[in-house]
Automatic annotation (TrEMBL):
The protein's name in its UniProt record: Carboxypeptidase regulatory-like domain-containing protein
InterPro entries per the UniProt record, alphabetical: Carb-bd-like_fold (IPR013784)
Source organism per UniProt: Gemmatimonas groenlandica
SUPFAM superfamilies: Starch-binding domain-like
PROSITE patterns hit by this protein: PROKAR_LIPOPROTEIN
GO molecular function: carbohydrate binding; carboxypeptidase activity
Amino acid sequence: MKIGSVVRSTVALTITAILTSGCSLITRGDCVDIGVSGIQVTVLDQRTRQSPSGAIVTLTDGDYRETLIGRGGVYSGAIERPGTYSITVEAPGYARWTRDNVSVVRSGSCNYLKNVALTSDLQPIG
């Protein structure tokens, strides 16, 4: 067997293996490079269902710490960062709200982050 035919056979077998294994290296046409939020927290007053002003939402995962900036009471973070988070929400005049062990993972054929959406119902103090 000549070297050229061995190379052609190897290439043909490799391409066949890729195509039949569902490898996304070739079929990523439907995937787009975007930054996906791993966590979304909606912050509401437990009684009025309105967004309190001055809320601070913090995510921690080990040594990693992120303070989220919100709009209209919705705070998003953990952009393209899987992990296991603790979430803390603080606002003047409200009791602190926390959630531990919030898991953010990748999923699907494009390996995007699976967004975790939570609602923080803050209880007014007093």
